[in-house]
Amino acid sequence: MCGIIGINSNKPVSATIINSLKKLEYRGYDSAGMATINNGLINEVKSEGRVENLEKNSLVQNMEGTIGIGHVRWATHGLPNSINAHPHSSQNVSVVHNGIIENSTILKKFLIGKGHKFKSQTDTEVIVHLITENLKTDNIVDSIKKTLKSLHGSFALGIIFKDQPDLIVGARRGSPLAVGYGPNENYLGSDSYALKSMTNKITYLNDGEFCIIKRDHVEFFSEEGTKINKKVLKLSSTEEKYDKGDYKHFMAKEIEEQPNTIKNGINEYLDMSNKDINIYNFPWKSNEITSITLIGCGTAYHSCLMAKYWFEEITSLDVNIDIASEFRYRKNRFKKDTLYVFVSQSGETADTYAALDLCKQSGVKTCAVVNVVESSIARDSEFVLPIHCGTEIGVASTKAFLGQILILYILALKLALWRKDIEKNNFNKKIDDLKKLPKLIEQTLLIDNKIQTISNTFNEAKGSMFLGRGFSYPIALEGALKLKELSYIHAEGYPAGEMKHGPLALIEEGMPVVVLAPRDNYYKKTISNMQEVIARGAKVLLITNKSKDEVISENIWETIEVESTNEDLLPFLLTIPLQKLAYYSALKKGYDIDKPRNLAKSVTVE
Ligand code: M6R
Predict the structure, then answer these.
(1) Is the peptide bond between 87 and the residue preceding it cis, with omega within 30 degrees of 0?
(2) Element spanning 296, H or E
(3) Which one of the listed residues 46, 108, 430, 601 is annotated catalytic?
(4) What is the mean pLDDT of the chain?
(5) Which CATH architecture best describes the domain 250-444?
(6) Which of 35, 173, 358, 519 measures 20 to 30 Å from 14, CA to CA?
């Protein structure tokens, strides 16, 4: 994770670095820091915690210099404190880093042997001393080349030099890095998002490449140190203004934006007049695909699991799903007739990217379902299906989840139609139902008050469980993930039918258990499982959909009814109360909802 910014300008840079760091905070918020060169010296300022702490630091307010680097940290090596915050500097070199140096212990030993003194517990500091050491004998290009060769692991780097106060070096392996071009100034950033307020002209570095950023031009080098030419891309849109509006938190706003997320997806992909799905330029014929593998992390993985149920139900394709961090280290048998789909909000998740990279190396078909269309995963996939849900700031993914599952559902329908797995009448009916979904989400969003009260019980409990079957099982996992990441309450998502194989032993008097039992094919079975946990003392919050038939069960603690729709689409509606439950639990506990402890929005380390 971690966010990097670098600015080489003809005017003071500290205020712009702070603004860019605020944009990058979704990558980490354990600590922040910056360094500039002024009067022949490297000035370094670092603060524990948020960028606002750094901004308040009087040293930053008086910081001069027209060239500088900045960093927000998500700690990997060493505590999240100001000593371990980046930049790390020697007398001559200052470095910001995103990634992990796997051989840092060996390198540190070697450098200590050479007389270098270390101040922090980080892996990054070895890079500073290696460059300093190499500069004793080599010029900048050779010393960078040599240093990068010695590093094992992943990195995106921003480097400034006291003795070369007119340049910033950027380098990447594994972690993303972009260069931006402005009037009389040039930039380095972890991604285009950090640079968008300054420029829409961008070049992305590829793995192994490095660059020298001067005020008026940028030079690019291959891993071997040979000069290379790179394309300048023009980003499609200017900076999107996205603020909290009247909401207390981005998460609250993003939950409420979900009817629009679905509307945008529908407008983009559904051709209502012809009752068809617009997926243009799909690069493969339907008979070239016989199976599909969906890969993601966290919430995006839950989207994959959700999609598995739909693909299996609607199409005749074989469907596999995988957690990216597992996929990348398994002995995969890549198949030419499998479509590999990478699901990610940010499009920068390191494990998902690495899984994509493996697939590309094997020459198989790759497709990205992403929100950030300029992201690495989007750029490097053969085909992209954007989610179109707009910027998502809250670390807990909400609207991106609904956006992802919508696009995956639409893809399942389209493939089913192409392959003649679904009858046109049935397809048309599903399209009609889909069109009504935004309104149903809007209505379901009105359930606030009840959930606020219910959240108290979850906050007082030692732990909780979320149970579902079939289409509701992925949603149970997602509900549990939301609660634990926001409220720090132990929550476990489980298939309802699996309880008696062990987890039932956890149930004790008063334990809150969420049971997702919409009126679908699995309803009766799930209600039986619910009775089993009630019988053992659980306080059951039943989430079902509105129906003329009463729920036949005694001793249910609370019931929430979402709107009704066809079975395929109920998961969209069941998600809403779970997002709200997590939100209100965290709100009552007074936790930082948009930036939960220990987490970051974009996980760019493995
Ligand atoms: O950007 P991505 O969708 O690839 O991120 C994947 C996960 O890190 C992410 O969904 C994470 O699990 C969320 N914080 C969950 O709310």
Answers:
(1) yes
(2) strand 291-296
(3) 601
(4) 94
(5) 3-Layer(aba) Sandwich (3.40)
(6) 173
Structure confidence at residue 238 (pLDDT): 56
User: Which residue, by CA, sits nearest to atom 11 of ligand 1?
Assistant: 298
The residues spanned by each domain of the chain are 3-234, 250-444, 448-589
Query: Going by CA atoms, what residue is nearest to atom 10 of ligand 1?
Result: 299
Written as one letter, the residue type at 581 is L
pLDDT at 436: 96
> Which atom of ligand 1 sits closest to the CA of residue 296?
4
448-589 has which fold? Answer: Rossmann fold (3.40.50)
- Return d(Cα 508, Cα 533) in angstroms, integer: 9
Q: Which pLDDT value is given to residue 237? A: 60
Residue nearest to atom 14 of ligand 1 (CA): 396
Binned at pLDDT 50, 70 and 90, residue 605 comes out as: confident
Under 8 Å between Cβ of 219 and 227: yes
Residues 602-606, mean pLDDT to the nearest whole number: 81
The Cα 590–Cα 113 span in angstroms is: 49
pLDDT at position 189 over 90 = yes
Q: Which residues line ligand 1 (CB under 6 A)?
A: 297-300, 344-346, 349, 352, 395-397, 481, 485, 602-603
DSSP bridge pairs for 467:
494, 515
Query: Which CATH superfamily groups domain 3-234?
Result: Aminohydrolase, N-terminal nucleophile (Ntn) domain (3.60.20.10)
Is there a shared CATH topology between the 3-234 domain and the 448-589 domain?
no
Instruction: List, for residues 423-456, the tens digit of each pLDDT value.
Output: 999 999 999 999 999 999 999 999 988 899 999 9
Q: Confidence band (pLDDT; 50, 70, 90) for 28?
A: confident
Nearest in space to 286 (alpha carbons), one of 429, 412, 425? 412
What's phi and psi for 30, nearest 5 deg? -75, -35
Residue 236, classed as helix, strand or coil, is coil
Residue 241 is a catalytic residue: no
Would you call 601 a catalytic residue per the annotation? yes
Q: What is the pLDDT of residues 378-401, one digit of tens each?
A: 999 999 999 989 999 999 999 999
User: What are the pLDDT digits (tens) for 193-204?
Assistant: 788 889 999 999
Structure tokens at 411: 């893809």
In whole angstroms, give the CA distance from residue 32 to residue 55. 9
